[in-house]
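User: I'll paste a sequence; please echo it back and then give the predicted structure.

Assistant: Echoing your sequence first, then the prediction.
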Amino acid sequence: MDDKKKNSKKPKYSQFSQQELPAWKPILTPGWVIATFITIGALFIPIGLIALAASDSVVEIVDRYDDQCVPDDYGQNPESYIQNPNVKKTCTRTLKVPKKMVAPIFVYYQLENFYQNHRRFVKSKSDKQLRDPDDEDDTHNCFPEDYTADDEPIVPCGLIAWSLFNDTYKLSSRGKAIDIDKKGIAWKSDMEAKFGSNVYPKNFQKGGLIGGAKLNEKIPLSEQEDLIVWMRTAALPKFRKLYGKINTDLDAHETITAEVENNYNTYKFGGRKKLVLSTTTWIGGKNDFLGFAYIAVGGLCLFMAINFILLYIFRPRRLGDPSYLSWNRQPIA
């Protein structure tokens, strides 16, 4: 008998093992359900309206220039234009300020149909190499941009760095240049943790095929903020990346002259390039989706609440009535 007790697999009694602990078991009565839907609708709709108002207060100028900055002679073959080093790439665009833009004004370049999220593209870098000069030979993920023809390692290696955006923008108004501040555009965590302050570019863009911008070999990677911004790959084929900031206000109806250096080859894959000037609010840049999403959810909740109220009034039934269970209903003759 004692052996049976010793070998018993019966658990020791406790409130936890027997699921006897005190618990809150809410019963969703019609009143609670209707009140919950009304509360959510009453909260979400005003939040959505506030978010939409904030988005509408953002002043944004968007100018597509890739199709306009191709000379007429190359209209049918823009790729030959962008690859010809003897053709002038400078293009002048005129921008109109619709409403007063209060500093800081953010300058972005927007690319479309550019798949930075492609698996091979995303993997084509070396995090160790970017952080430590002793790991400059760590290029196993970077092919074909890993070594030069002389078998020297490329720093930074990989397709992401190689394809660095290289269009440039110069803005002016009323004959005076508008300064674009390019400091502080990258994440501080990236500058301090992902890119070494003692890692310098080496053998970069010195192969037969140049992908994009070149880097100053006298400046460490942690201070090359254009590269750091570009290396944070986008999740969607349409994205914006920060180019710089304007720290002076722009008046309403002011005319801005943008001198664009159209170097980046998006014509090969049917991409599009846009120059964007935008202010921000507490919600960030212009984004109507968040406001519409809150309003849609709030409106749906109010609609459901009204439906439940009508059902509760015109077709009431006793709470917990077992006659409504399928196995208690009388079969239809």
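The longest strand covers residues 105-112. Strands lie at 60-64, 90-96, 105-112, 168-173, 176-178, 239-246, 255-261, 272-278.
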